[in-house]
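Schema walk-through. Below, the input block comes first and the output block second. Nothing else is stored per chain. Lengths vary across the set, and this one has 209 residues.
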Amino acid sequence: MTRRLGSGSLVIATHNAGKLKEIAALLEPHGMKCLSAGSLGLPEPPETGTTFVENALIKARAAAEASGIVALADDSGLSADALNGRPGVYTADWAERQWFEGDPGRDWYMAMGKVEGMLQELGPDVDRSAAFHCVLAIAWPDGEYAVYEGKCAGSLSWPPRGTMGFGYDPVFVPTGSDLTFAEIEPEAKHAISHRADAFAKLVAEQFGG
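--- output ---
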């Protein structure tokens, strides 16, 4: 039996206010008060893992050890079948502009273009199957941990469509839909997303009967 969370405080290993709000909304009905690593002044550890699981655990463990409070971290990204699972854990890195490409920051259109360019190099009949992945890791200060993996399968389209998503959403069409994630209303997207899949597994095990 996996160790369970009790009601109380939980550190969300993020400095992103939007991500904190999204995760807190899912956990507060279960008696969890969510704090962000950013609000506690915790540093962001280097994500040196080669898998989503490794990176999620790195972040969760660092937050739990630094705060002395149970911590939750997520790591997520896009994998394209024809690209051997890339960009994978480097999903966000592919959007990072280099110093010679203008202002620093993330350029998601550039990142989508990199993926599309690689697919086109493989020919017109390339397999466009892809999936979004999300791993949620809980770490206790004493070293115990639990991991939950979620997935949303689909395919990659071009050109980008829609304005409601972020990241690679404008080119990702989930299985069973003709719309990209960026064309689907946020509530409908959250119901089928990779993060929703991972959270459903976490809630069932941590707060189920």
